[in-house]
Amino acid sequence: MSDDIVADDDTADLTGDVTGLADDLYDVIGLLRRRSRRLVGAPLPELKLSGAQLELVRVVRRNPGITVAESARVLGLAANTVSTLVGQLLAVDVLVRERDSSDRRVARLDLTASARTALEQWRDRRAQTTATALAGLPADERARLGDALVTIARIAADLPESTDASQSPPAPASGTSATSHAVPSGAVAREHQPSGGDGS
How many CA within 13 A on the CB side of residue 138? Predict the structure, then answer.
């Protein structure tokens, strides 16, 4: 067997390992979201907001004063799609839209006071519920989880805002080492189903 074939096999193994890790990451995050949603429900449940609407609510909560164009870039959606979502959320008193004081052509978005209060109360309930589970972990596991959050945030920051579906993702760097995934595969398999946004 030539060195080129061996190198190709090694690259294929590494790519498969990293792809599996990516799948496991999303499975575990989805599992956490679904379990917490069962305990504390969805935010603003009386409005029965769609996943896309909740994603926009999440963006506006974290970025008060954001514009429609900026929201569209964050969400990876067309501006007219976000404009439609904004109109729907204005109609149910979740968002407010105000003109920029320095440029009247620019409209800025924020949550209504009632929506912000309801969301913060929901987030408090979710955090308290999850904190109870975290308190049962040994201190070293909580420390490792804290370290992992930094890595996950870096992964999220490194993801492109959009991608060309016709292009294959780049292969992992040759210096990347394969790792085993400590993932509760049984639980993930039982819970594996699509999860929508939750306005977090």
Answer: 3
